[in-house]
Amino acid sequence: MATAPVARPHLSFSTILRSLSQTPHRLRRRMFVTWSPDQELNQVRQRSGADMKRKLEWYDLVALGVAGMLGAGVFVTTGRVAHNVSGPAVFVSYIVAGVSALLSSMCYTEFSVEMPVAGGAFSYLRVTFGEFVGYFGGANILMEYVLSNAAVARTFTEYLSQAFGVDDPKSWRVEVDGLAKGYNSLDFPAVALILLITLCLCYSTKESSIANVVMTVFHVIFFGVVIVACFANGNPKNLVKPRGLAPFGARGVLDGAARVFISYIGYDSVSTMAEEIRNPSKSLPIGIAGSVLIVSALYCLMALALCSMIPYDEILDDASFSSAFKNVVGWRWMGNVVGVGASLGIVASLLVAMLGQARYLCVVGRARLVPFWLAKVHPSTGTPINATIFLGICTASIALFADLEIVIEMISIGTLLVFYLVAGALIYRRYVKLGGGGISSPRPTLLFLLLLTVTSIGFSLSWKLNGGYWWGLAIFGAAAIAITGIFHRKVPCNRSTAEWSVPLMPWPAAASIFLSVFHMTSLKKRDFLRFVLWSCFITLFYALYGVHSTFHAEEMELEMEPERGASESNHGEPSPPPQAKLEVQGP
Predict the structure, then answer these.
(1) Average pLDDT of the residues in 309-328
(2) What is the pLDDT of residues 82-103, one digit of tens each?
(3) 119 contacts 40 by C-beta, under 8 angstroms
(4) DSSP characters for 481-533?
(5) Structure pTM?
(6) In whole angstroms, what is the distance from residue 480 CA to residue 424 CA?
(7) pLDDT digits (tens, 9 = 90+) for 179-221
(8) Cα gap 169→134, rounded to integer Å
(9) What are phi and psi for residue 6, nearest 5 degrees?
(10) How much is the pLDDT for 499?
(11) How far apart are CA 139 and CA 142, in angstroms?
(12) Are 326 and 89 in contact, with CB atoms under 8 Å apart?
């Protein structure tokens, strides 16, 4: 006779309000609670009910990664950054951002092979630094997904209008006089696209992946056609006129790298597919690194092609490729073709990004940090249907109102912070011995991470401040290299348990930390202000809801252990394994 299903702990908002007096105690108890990789893989995953279906291969991941990045990178940021920030040297900005993304992708890959779960950065940070850091990183990456998807969806409207031969890219939006500027241009085609993709993703992951593979193949072919057409009608002199290859100097190139970093958001969504991959240890390294390399090459070629065809100061911010063919070459039909191809690529990009964002939220829901119904996986489709619908509605709401420039400004800083945290988490796990093999002191590793961060900030501010602080660059740059070298020689590195691990540690992860900090300091003060406001909001949500929800969930599960044992003795059958005791480690 089978055991009765275990009741799920329910936590109402009234219960949370009555518990507020215990908030300081519960924060001390919960903030640094960590789960082991085994718990994350098994017990936490089982909270969603049905498992996600393992149907994806390595080529699905490469296609998902390529599709997730291409639409956002070329069609949202290239024209704007070339015209306003980097000039023709925008391709160098893509190279710098690509190196940062590749280093960070190596850190993601080791974590995802060791823990093939759908939580991505949230899970990696939670098992390393504890519940709050994982929640903070997960909330930021979710914000980046929603905002970037809204930005890409609004760009879809501009290119779709170009495909139908409409000269004004903004003509398909509805202007409303009563709303504030920047929020008064309603984009109904973007909303329709997001809702349609949301319905498709609720149905099946594999079928969505097949559609994505087909669209990605056509998209890459289309890229090749555009690159050839641009170079055929271009002139190398456009790369150096009117003010040289880098008219805004090296500062403009590196500031541009921070702005185009939105282009690489898509690769980390591949790691969220880990629960749906047949052979994660083989497929994830190929899928993540392969997609970053392919996309970086295409970005550079597309940026060079655009700037060779038209001087950077004549590039339009909106629908830059379509406008270039129409206004410079006179190929109105080619502008329509670009509109069609760009629209197709943006659909593929949204498909992948919205696939990833739902899985992030699903795993955050499993941890009880948001309402638990968001963690439910539909038993027949094997998809996180509630999370998919909820985030689809949020994305559509932002895409309806918010202007593209306002949305883009919020995107890069959160992504860079999460990449910084993941790189730091990898160093911590590789150099601090935990669990059965004994426990080593985390102080040397934490001190190294602190000093590396301080020297990275010092180098970055010396670069950013006007006045030529070259002595600061030399001192802080040399200090960062020296600190990493001393740490490498003095602190032993633990052998990774994953089947694939980052080589030459800690140098790749340290370089990822350095570049993430450098890119963050290139952003505007307004970006940091908005980020601080968002951080205050999510921290308040954690203190008022998340910490109480996880605290009560733990109590409920511990109380149910004796009931499971009694059920097993009464029926003579094995009961589900009890919840393992949480590991509490203060880093």
Answers:
(1) 80
(2) 888 888 999 999 999 888 888 9
(3) yes
(4) HHHHHHHHHHSPPPPP-SSS--SSTTHHHHHHHHHHHHHHTTS-HHHHHHHHH
(5) 0.80
(6) 15
(7) 666 666 788 888 999 999 888 888 765 566 677 677 778 878 8
(8) 40
(9) -75, 130
(10) 74
(11) 5
(12) no
